[in-house]
Q: What sequence folds into this?
């Protein structure tokens, strides 16, 4: 194959020949498929060039409702490892996940390797909260499990995986320290979070915040608030006296702006990156960048 490529490079059909060889080389590498882009970024950091990583969820998409093509579904079927969030997050993708599971595709479900929290809201009480990435210490658990799962794949460079995993765990530890230091400056009576929907349960648990409420009930963006939901939340915001409420970048903030207006109180509305990474240059194109941006905005919004 190498000799064939060398000969083709001297001909007019250079582009076709090289593309064919490159495609073959990529096909020979282990194939890792990841459902969501936040997990995709973490997997890419751990894998490096030891395998080919395909992330199904596009930047700025909604993990609850994004869809995939037939070609991407076929990639799932052929994966050496499928990495999913689990805990009901990828609602629009569940049929494909169920199919690959039944077919025996090796799968790492991140929700199975962390300490799971239930939603704290009454409307979602008892359900598992899938938004564990808001706590970087739980992402360390995911990296640990990912390292082991990748090491079991035939043909993968295990030493590279071990080195990459150790380096990324260091990045996560540094992130955790930065978040702790930033949030320490927020007085206890101001550590209250109001968002579009319930996303920050793990952050609240890790960094000692109170969850006052969310505009959208339950744990999914596919739900919609009722007039009673808005009235109850308005009362809770008024009682808590929070100076800032937070809107997600994955959704329009119209509802949360209306809520702020109807509450009859002076409250700022600040956008956070929550369930999806962005395109490069839009403020949250990696997991670490996203978390640092959110930390800064939460600290600025709640610190006197």
A:
């Amino acid at each position: 194959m190498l000799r064939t490529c060398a000969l083709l490079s001297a001909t007019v059909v250079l582009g076709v020949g090289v593309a064919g060889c490159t495609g073959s080389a990529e096909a020979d590498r282990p194939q890792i498929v990841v459902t969501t882009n936040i997990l995709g970024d973490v997997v890419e950091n751990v894998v490096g060039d030891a395998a080919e990583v395909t992330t199904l969820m596009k930047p700025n998409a909604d993990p609850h409702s994004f869809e995939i093509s037939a070609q991407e579904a076929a990639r799932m079927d052929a994966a050496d490892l499928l990495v999913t969030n689990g805990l009901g997050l990828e609602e629009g993708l569940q049929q494909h996940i169920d199919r690959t599971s039944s077919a025996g595709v090796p799968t790492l479900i991140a929700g199975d390797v962390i300490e799971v929290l239930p939603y704290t809201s009454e409307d979602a009480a008892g359900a598992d909260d899938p938004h564990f990435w808001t706590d970087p210490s739980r992402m360390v658990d995911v990296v640990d499990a990912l390292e082991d799962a990748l090491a079991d794949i035939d043909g993968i460079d295990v030493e590279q995986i071990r080195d990459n995993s150790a380096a990324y765990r260091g990045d996560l530890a540094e992130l955790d320290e930065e978040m702790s230091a930033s949030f320490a400056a927020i007085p206890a009576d101001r550590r209250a979070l109001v968002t579009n929907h319930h996303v920050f349960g793990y952050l609240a648990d890790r960094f000692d915040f109170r969850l006052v409420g969310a505009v959208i009930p339950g744990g999914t963006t596919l739900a919609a608030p009722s007039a009673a939901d808005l009235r109850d939340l308005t009362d809770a915001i008024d009682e808590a006296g929070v100076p800032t409420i937070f809107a997600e970048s994955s959704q329009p903030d119209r509802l949360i702006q209306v809520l702020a207006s109807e509450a009859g109180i002076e409250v700022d509305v600040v956008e956070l990156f929550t369930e999806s990474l962005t395109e490069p240059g839009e403020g949250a194109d990696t997991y670490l960048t996203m978390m640092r941006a959110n930390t800064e905005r939460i600290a600025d919004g709640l610190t006197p």
